[in-house]
């Protein structure tokens, strides 16, 4: 079961995503840099090639002056009219792991963006 991390520098990588709800939330928080209990993560609902997904970022990223994430903003461009900041974490809906088909759709979109 998969998730994708998209860094502000434009690179991205696939990693395993837990199936346990508590571990899912902790994994998302760690990936976006929200290490303390006070920091919240923001969910952005996206759709990639017909797959309803979620993209997660540090909710206070702008206040923390995190760098813009153009690649994550590209993924969310149909849902948002502003740029995202910081590291983004992509999952299926309800923070669940992506299926192989969902993963391949996101990867194809990211590769297209890099070309």
Description:
The chain is α+β, with helices and mostly antiparallel strands. It has one domain. It has three helices and five strands. It has helices spanning 21-32, 70-75, 100-114, and strands at residues 2-6, 12-16, 41-48, 51-58, 88-92. Strands 2-1-5-4-3 form a five-stranded antiparallel sheet. β1 (2-6) and β2 (12-16) form a beta hairpin. The chain is globular.
Radius of gyration: 13 Å
Mean pLDDT: 91
Oligomeric nature of the chains: single chain
Query: How many individual β-strands?
Result: 5
SSE order, one letter for each helix or strand: EEHEEHEH
Strand order of the largest sheet: 2-1-5-4-3
- The residue ranges in which pLDDT falls below 50 over 5 or more consecutive positions are none
Q: How many DSSP helices?
A: 3
How would you summarize this macromolecular structure in one to three sentences?
This protein has 115 residues and is of the alpha+beta class.
Give the key terms.
5-stranded antiparallel beta sheet; alpha+beta; about 120 residues
Topology:
Elements: E1 2-6, E2 12-16, H1 21-32, E3 41-48, E4 51-58, H2 70-75, E5 88-92, H3 100-114
Antiparallel strand pairs: 1-2, 1-5, 3-4, 4-5
């Amino acid at each position: 079961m998969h998730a994708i991390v998209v860094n502000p520098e434009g690179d991205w990588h696939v990693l395993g995503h837990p199936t346990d709800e508590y571990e899912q939330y902790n994994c998302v928080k760690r990936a976006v840099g929200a290490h303390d209990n006070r920091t919240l993560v923001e969910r952005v609902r996206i759709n990639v090639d017909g797959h309803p997904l979620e993209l997660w970022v540090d909710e206070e990223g702008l206040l923390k002056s995190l760098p813009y994430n153009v690649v994550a903003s590209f993924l969310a461009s149909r849902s948002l009219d502003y740029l995202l900041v910081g590291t983004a974490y992509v999952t299926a809906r309800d923070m669940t792991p992506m299926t192989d088909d969902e993963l391949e759709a996101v990867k194809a979109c990211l590769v297209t963006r890099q070309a």
